[in-house]
Amino acid sequence: MLAHMTNGTADFLQKLIDKHSGKRIWLMHAESSSLAYYEDQAKSIFVSGRDYDILIKNGEIQAEGYVVMNNIPVTEEGQPVFEHQFQNRRHDMEKMPGFQAFRLLKPKKGNTYVVFTQWRSVQDFENWKTSDHFKQAHKNTSVKPPDYYADRPFLTAYHMTVEDDN
């Protein structure tokens, strides 16, 4: 399964979604940008989008919620180690109240993986970050990033947009 995403203005992305009404495309908004995301086996409909292999898929993406994407650049030689760590991780996040979906996305081009999580609300995500489960999952994380990181990871966060039926 593949994941496809692209950024653009909300109006442009909505027109793109309307044009491809046969696909389930989620529209998300941040403070200064919008993102369209969908999962499919076929080639992307996005001209300037990003394509990913879905390595891990837990939960189903919901129409409403809060999405956090941890963008992690990984060296080519570090990719097997990085993927192995996720394949063998504990699944405590999925037990947290408000958890909706998790995806580990491997880029088809480039080196930046995306750890995609969806939560019912910002507060549910914040509760996860302060939970004992989070501390346990990140207990081996030091101030210095692992050697297989090609650059510093960065977060992007979005609120899902619910389509109006007007």
UniProtKB/TrEMBL annotation:
Swiss-Prot/TrEMBL keywords: Monooxygenase, Oxidoreductase
PANTHER family in UniProt: SIGNAL TRANSDUCTION PROTEIN TRAP
A molecular-function term among this protein's GO annotations: monooxygenase activity
Pfam families for the chain: ABM
Name of this protein: Heme-degrading monooxygenase HmoB
Ranges annotated as spanning the membrane: none
The keyword Heme is annotated on this UniProt entry: no
Keyword Cytoplasm among UniProt keywords: no
InterPro entries given in the database record: ABM_dom, Dimeric_a/b-barrel, Heme-degrading_MO
Coiled-coil stretches noted in the UniProt entry, renumbered to this chain: none
